[in-house]
């Protein structure tokens, strides 16, 4: 009986070692998560809409003539009529209000160049007039066109201080627009890095 007792003890010892080895090799793991909060820090706001003023516009739709009224980013207005078309500034001031937005970054973000992109122009309801040739100017960037879907640079000189961005444009009339009506066209600009 000794051999079978030895076999039993040997089997128990091997089983015990296997259990011990399994215990020694038991493991557990955890996932460590890394987080970061991000924010572009960009804040934009509208200050003024572009105001061309009040005009008498007369254009024979069949003549092919046109009236153009342009406002620059300083508010200076110029108008032109071809052929028999008529344009008269009813305010007599030759100045309007350029559009203005501001863009700001957090304090300390000085001299950062942002990309400004203009979206499609939502035109006037009256199809006899159109808005086009949008321009922009900042304290750093001279007056320049801002074309649809074409990014331009806007430099934020001092973070924590709203950076003014001024807008101008041109209205073209190829027929007499509706009488005694206020006309509105819009465009969106987006600021990003």
Q: Structural class from helices and strands?
A: mainly beta
Question: Total strand count, please?
Answer: 12
- Low-confidence parts lasting 5 or more residues at pLDDT below 50? none
* Mean pLDDT across every amino acid position: 90
Oligomeric state of the chains? Answer: single chain
> Over all CA atoms, what is the radius of gyration?
35 Å
User: What percentage of residues falls in helices of 4 or more residues?
Assistant: 10-25%
> Quick one: CATH class?
Mainly Beta
Outline, from the CA principal axes? elongated
Number of helices: 1
Largest sheet: 7 strands, antiparallel
What would the CATH topology be?
Immunoglobulin-like
Order of helices and strands: HEEEEEEEEEEEE
Write up what this structure looks like.
The chain has 193 residues and is mainly beta. The protein has one domain (43-192): Immunoglobulin-like. Helix content is 12%, strand content 35%. It is built from 1 helix and 12 strands; from the N terminus they run αββββββββββββ. It has one helix at 2-24, and strands spanning 43-48, 55-58, 67-71, 77-81, 86-89, 99-104, 112-118, 129-137, 144-145, 152-156, 163-173, 189-192. Strands 1, 3, 4, 6, 8, 9 and 11 form a 7-stranded antiparallel sheet that branches. Strands 10-7-12 form a 3-stranded antiparallel sheet, with no helix packed on it. Strands 2-5 form a two-stranded antiparallel sheet. A hairpin with a 6-residue loop joins strand 8 (129-137) and strand 9. The protein is elongated.
């Amino acid at each position: 009986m000794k051999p079978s007792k030895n076999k039993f003890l040997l089997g128990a010892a091997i089983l015990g070692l296997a259990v011990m080895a399994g215990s020694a090799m038991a493991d557990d793991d955890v996932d460590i998560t890394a987080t970061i909060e991000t924010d572009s820090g960009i804040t934009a706001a509208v200050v003024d809409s572009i105001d061309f003023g009040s005009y008498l516009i007369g254009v024979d739709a069949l003549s092919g003539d046109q009236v153009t009224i342009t406002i620059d980013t300083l508010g200076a207005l110029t108008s032109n009529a071809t052929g028999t078309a008529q344009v008269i500034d009813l305010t007599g001031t030759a100045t309007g209000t350029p559009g203005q937005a501001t863009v700001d970054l957090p304090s300390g973000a000085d001299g950062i160049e942002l990309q400004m992109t203009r979206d499609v122009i939502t035109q006037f309801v009256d199809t006899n007039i159109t808005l086009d040739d949008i321009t922009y100017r900042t304290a750093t960037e001279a007056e320049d066109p801002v074309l649809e879907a074409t990014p331009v640079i806007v430099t934020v000189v001092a973070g924590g201080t709203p950076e003014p961005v001024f807008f101008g444009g041109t209205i073209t009339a190829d027929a007499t627009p509706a009488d005694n009506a206020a006309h509105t066209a819009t465009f969106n600009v987006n600021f990003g890095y």
